[in-house]
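Possible regression after last week's pipeline update?

I re-ran a chain I had predicted before the update to compare outputs. Posting the input and the new output here so someone can diff against the archived version. Not blocking, just want to make sure nothing changed silently.
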Amino acid sequence: MNNNCQVCSGSSVKKLLDFGPQPLCNRFSITPHEDDYYHPLILGQCQDCSLIQLMDPIPASEIIPRVDWLRYAEPERHLDNLADIVSSLDSLPEKPVACGVTYKDDSLLKRLEERSFEKTWRIQPKQDLGIKEKGIAGETIIPKLNFNSVNNITNTYGYADVVIARHVLEHALDTQVFLSTIWNMLKPEGYIVFEVPDCTKQLENKDYTLPWEEHILYFVPETLKSTFDYTSYELTQYCHYPYQTEDVQVVIIRKAEAHAKENLQPPPEAFILPEAYANSFENHRKIIYSYLKEYVSNVGKIAFYGAGHLSVMLIKSLQIEEFIEFIIDDTELKQKLYLAGTSLQIKPSEYLEFEKISLCILCLNIEHENKIMKKHNRFIAEGGIFASAFPMQENSLFKIANNNYRK
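New output (post-update):
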């Protein structure tokens, strides 16, 4: 385990919650366990700056997806507002230039073009970094960004007034190196726009789908804002956008001549929520495990809906695979494959009724839950139950299991 903090460089990262060896979630295979890769998944918290982070990140060479069709859709309802803010930044030239790091930045770059930006461009993985794999994002691009590659990129496209980096910072294997590298893409008065998830709701609600091997850093507002106190950037704006499960937070930073601040100390309350999250896990696991064990023995069959990293994390960390019949997902490219680290095949949603499933656990973007339940009203009418994997939902699996546990 690495006790050195990714942000403040202190050597006091303390183990928060050890999930043990967990499978890499992006490994889909034709036969069970064909391409499994296990690695310790350990959440830690820095005692100097309070940032939550992985203590033993997976090597960059292993994190690269083995399939070329994986795409991650990030929330976008806030992008019009964010584009207005970026377009109004102080000291921008009359005809500013913006660049993006991954395909996740395309939608914001388009909005900037529609406003005041004369030119936008994005790093092309194959052309600019020699990456042959398709469908890759920050997890693969960040390790390829170094002094030489950035120098070649700026020679090709020029320097940017604004660098857009949506859902990239939390993937940085070496945060300080990444921040110093991306500096070289900016003009002297340039800005970087970082967008990252806010983990507060998941910590508060004891949502154990939160950890993911591709996310090295887990920000709450306080730790995101303070991150740049340890760099040569200055924080110029902070924005917070509410979403149902996981809020979005944005920081806009710029080059600064001032040196990093020293002797910074987080408030004591910064450790209360993460510690409660960690301490509740085993009881949470026991309650759900006991409920599902009893359910398959006395009531009926169970399936999970959603063949992504959320399902992998929940099934493997709670040790409930033996109670699950299969995984439902209507993405055709996933069907007939097996969920990473499991013997659970992925099937289309009509199998809910074909296989007489009694309990279906929804484990995908929470905003799709109502749509799925409306689509399968026949399943519900015939006695089928949908439960949400997310504890903040009224029909959450944990609430159902906990009520049963108390009886």
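Follow-up from reviewer: compared with the archived run. Residues 272-298 form the longest helix (27 residues). Marking as no regression found.
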